[in-house]
Amino acid sequence: MKLNHENIKEVKNKLIYPSELFINGKYQKSISEKSFENISPINGHKVNSVSFAQKEDIDLAVKKAREVFNKGIWSNLPPSERKKILLKFAQLLERDRLELSLLDTIDMGKTINDTFNADLPTSIDNIEWYAEIIDKLFDDISPSSSQYMGLITKEPIGVVAAIVPWNYPLWMAIWKIAPALITGNSVILKPAEQSPMSAIKIGAMLSEAGLPDGVFSVLAGDGPTTGKLLCLHNDIDCVAFTGSGEVGKLVLQYSGQSNMKRVQLECGGKSPNIIFADCANLDLAAEASAYAIFGNQGEVCSAGSRLIVQKEIENDFIKKVSEISKNMQPSDPLNPNSFAGAIVNTEQLEKIDRYVNIGKKEGAYLEVGGNITMKDTGGSYFEPTIFRNVSNDMKIAQEEIFGPVLSTISFSSFKEAIFIANDSQYGLAAGVWTKDINKAIKASREIKAGTVYINNYEEGVDSTIPLGGYKQSGIGRDNGPQALENYLQVKSTWIKIT
Ligand code: NAD
Fold first, then answer.
1. Which of 59, 360, 371, 482 could join 477 in a cystine, given CB atoms 3.0 to 4.6 angstroms apart?
2. Are 258 and 304 in contact (CB under 8 A)?
3. What DSSP character marks residue 221?
4. Cβ-contact 40, 17 below 8 angstroms
């Protein structure tokens, strides 16, 4: 299906806004009857009231998840059978693609073009990829002495809580639940309070696909209540978390305060994008650099938020990026032709505005943008913003802003570029633009980041390639076969041969 104004309008008019918790195969309100208001950043209007999961709801979901896990209804199902159910789920996601896209767009303000043409297809691909891999993996036999046979097998870890952010609501959830479910675990998903609707909707879709009751629950709620209680729960075996480093550190503490559950973390970034003067195509690099920070309103963990440019091309290159940014202004997220949409909420909008003021006070030069815009809509929108003359010790170069704000920093030598790139608490991603293959490989080896893009920046999205961080950008990986390890235990069995 191709997006157009008509089909968007038609599906939106019939849209049902999911609002309840999903536990043991059915929707229900929070036992406490508590709820929270869900506001759309597109226009500041209330969308619905969403049930707010409290301790009793969490205990119930964990109890059901544990029961079904222990019975082996899902965990002991042959991988080829689990595969069929997830492939069916992928088909259902395709069937409801526009509906789910609209829910995410209305919830967090990103464009319908992004949700429909990027988030949904990549989520579907991710489900299919994990479904297809699971019945092709083998366990090991150790090269031990002839008196023994050592079996090294992998088992699901048990009950997994997946706690996810709002910037790609469905997609970030799928990155956790696809590998966690396919390996046989029970999963409790806690979406971000800013974007709960697509997560709630997929509860029923997984049941429709054939997933047994109890295996998958959705508990909406905020971080300090629902998220924290999940992390402290003594009958949850693993928390798979995507979000800020600040909360990631809390998750580690909660694990230590409770049952030492396994913690996987995908956290923030302040990713360097290095443009060497010998880059073969500066126009292409400028286009990609602008997209790397202004795509998805800059609300991207791996956004290329530090543009590190070699001195001799600095002026020209910044001019090119500035020119391109003019076509990356926010506009109505529900218009299929919009490039960028709304910022997730007023708190995030104010945070971005605060950082722009900090940048000015720190002495950086505001080249482009810097303002809240589209105020008449009642929604939250911010202009693409570019600072130059930034030094890497400024707050706008060190702290994650999570909005459309680019800090440009210049360098003279290869050594200086790498030093600046690595001078950060984060290590999620980096870009390197040069036609010298030796320089590119050397840079890739020296940069401390989980992903290095050479002569591209986040161009392809691929379920096969792991994504995750060095340093304070995280622990473990999403995507690729590596993500399966987050949700598996290793069992060694010694068999004596007599
Ligand atoms: P956040 O850390 O505020 O929230 C993330 C999730 O954690 C939400 O569901 C929230 O309710 C929950 N949470 C908040 N406080 C909690 C607590 N005390 N205990 C347990 N759970 C709690 O992050 P956000 O603002 O939703 O998302 C933006 C952040 O996510 C950015 O830092 C971004 O870089 C990061 N992110 C990282 C990746 C990645 O793959 N590395 C991908 C997307 C987003």
1. 482
2. no
3. -
4. no
> Could you tell me the distance, in angstroms and rounded to a whole number, from the CA of residue 161 to the centre of ligand 1?
14
Q: What is the pLDDT of residue 288?
A: 98
Residue 175 beta carbon below 6 angstroms from any ligand 1 atom:
no
Q: Which amino acid is at 251?
A: V
* pLDDT < 50: residue spans in the chain: none
To the nearest 10°, the Cα dihedral for 279, 268, 93, 3?
-50
* Residue of 36, 58, 167 with the most ligand 1 atoms within 8 Å of its CB, for mutation: 167
pLDDT score recorded for residue 337: 98
- pTM, two decimals, is 0.98
Q: What is the pLDDT of residue 460?
A: 75
Q: How far apart are CA 245 and CA 265, in angstroms?
A: 9
Q: What are the E-state strand segments in 29-78?
A: 35-39, 46-51
Pairing relation of β-strands 46-51 and 35-39? antiparallel
Token couple for 394: 């400024």
| 50, β-bridge pairs | 36
Measured distance CA(284)–CA(272) in Å, rounded? 17
| Domains, the chain | 5-267+475-492 (3.40.605.10), 272-462 (3.40.309.10)
**In angstroms, what is the span from residue 54 Cα to ligand 1's centroid?**
19
